[in-house]
Write a structure and sequence with these properties.
alpha/beta; globular; 37% helix; 4-stranded antiparallel beta sheet
Length: 406
């Protein structure tokens, strides 16, 4: 008799965003005339920019010739893209990252989950609370999380680091020293960011205890504050303790094209092994690489034209975030984030539960949000709104929610 991975049976309910989509669908079926505006799922709406689509068309034409056809590519990514990343995202900021430390993939979500393959199941994992659910669920699937405590909304083997209003939604090093530490800045879902000084505390902590920081910087392009690093490798000492995840999804609209990358420094060693070599071995075994056409499109992001065009899209989303933040704040609602990030973290009025408030806003305003409770225990009492919608739809959504409180 085959044995299944029983860790999957321990997972509570369904994946957060699947449940949000289900509830929206049920409401829509019951109210077919309702025009629902979605500020829930963090998917982009602006189209791929001309520089990217032009590069992709050229790559398609190239693939249609005997001379230009490419089959299996390098699992780590084509050299032209890895070099463009090293120069455009790192050297341009005075940070030294070599192409051999960059692994191109089909998404930061995939990498954040798959990175666990190179770590033993006995490692103690620390996550921010609230947190992007993928960090928690994938460790639970691997058996690192232990047992789910329904009454607490927590896994008993994970170390939860509260990110609440009292500490500025910034995690603090726990007394129980973890082996693996997930950090995300700009943060999903709170929209909070960590300064260079705050990150330096974490880097020193990890190096002192032999921990590894898994640093998700998928939203770094939205940073506007001068004291907030765009990469953890701007912090001295990070190359011996950190792995960084980046994505073209929110930066360049690749949510449907799928392209991202992970940086594993050569200096990073644990247990006598280079983690760069371990990740390379994992990718070569389990991953066939990102399509050539997509990688050509990603490389176009680093051209002068591409950079200007994607920044125009990011400015569009930043403007949406400002509309949400300022509009709801003017209505007397407590809002956080939305300055260096595309997410606004709204405190539910009157102490309402996050799923309760989700249902109320959906029914009264026909606006879909994401309940904070789905991100962890400390997310209860909040909802997340995204700035990735259309400008007019975003303004209409804010007006609808504000009307609820007039």
């Amino acid at each position: 008799m085959v044995k299944i991975n029983e860790n999957y049976l321990k997972l509570p309910g369904s994946y957060l965003f699947s449940e949000v989509a289900r509830r929206i669908r049920v409401y829509q079926e019951a109210h077919p005339q309702a025009e629902i505006i979605k500020l829930s799922i963090g998917d982009v709406t602006r189209p791929l920019v001309p520089a990217v689509t032009s590069a992709m068309r050229a790559a398609v034409d190239e693939m249609g010739t005997a001379e230009g056809f490419r089959g299996y590519g390098p699992e780590q990514g084509y050299e032209f893209l890895r070099e463009a990343i090293a120069q455009g995202d790192y050297a341009a900021r005075g940070v030294a990252v070599q192409p051999g430390e960059i692994f191109v993939s089909d998404g930061a979500k995939s990498d954040c989950g798959n990175i666990g393959d190179i770590f033993g199941v006995d490692n103690v994992v620390a996550v921010c609370d609230p947190v992007y659910p993928v960090y928690v669920d994938t460790n639970a699937m691997a058996g690192r999380a232990g047992e789910y405590q329904e009454e607490l909304g927590k896994w008993n083997r994970l170390v939860y680091m509260p990110c609440v209003e009292a500490n500025g939604f910034a995690p603090e090093p726990p007394e129980d020293i973890p082996d693996i530490i997930y950090l995300c800045s700009p943060n999903n879902p709170t929209g909070a960011v960590m300064t260079k000084d705050q990150l330096k505390v974490w880097v020193d902590y990890a190096n002192a205890h032999g921990s590894v920081i898994l640093y998700d910087s998928a939203y770094e392009a939205f940073i506007t504050s001068g004291n907030v690093p765009h990469t953890i490798f701007e912090v001295e000492g990070a190359r011996t303790c950190a792995i960084e995840f980046r994505s073209f999804s929110k930066t360049a609209g690749f949510t449907g094209s799928r392209c991202a990358y992970t940086v594993v420094p050569m200096e990073l060693e644990r247990g006598g092994a280079k983690l760069n070599a371990l990740w390379n071995r994992r990718q070569c075994t389990k991953f066939n690489g990102v399509p050539y056409v997509v990688q050509r499109g990603a490389a176009a992001v680093y051209t002068p034209e591409g950079r200007a065009q994607i920044m125009a899209n990011i400015d569009y989303y930043r403007a949406n975030a400002k509309v949400i933040r300022e509009g709801l704040s003017a209505a007397g609602l407590a809002c956080f984030g939305g300055v260096d990030a595309p997410y606004i973290w709204l405190k539910t009025p009157g102490g309402a539960g996050s799923w309760e408030f989700f249902d109320r806003v959906l029914a009264e305003a026909n606006v879909a949000t994401t309940p904070g409770a789905g991100f962890g225990p400390s997310g209860e009492g909040y909802i997340r709104l995204t700035a990735f919608g259309g400008a007019e739809a975003t303004k209409a959504a804010v007006e609808r929610v504000c009307n609820m409180f007039r």
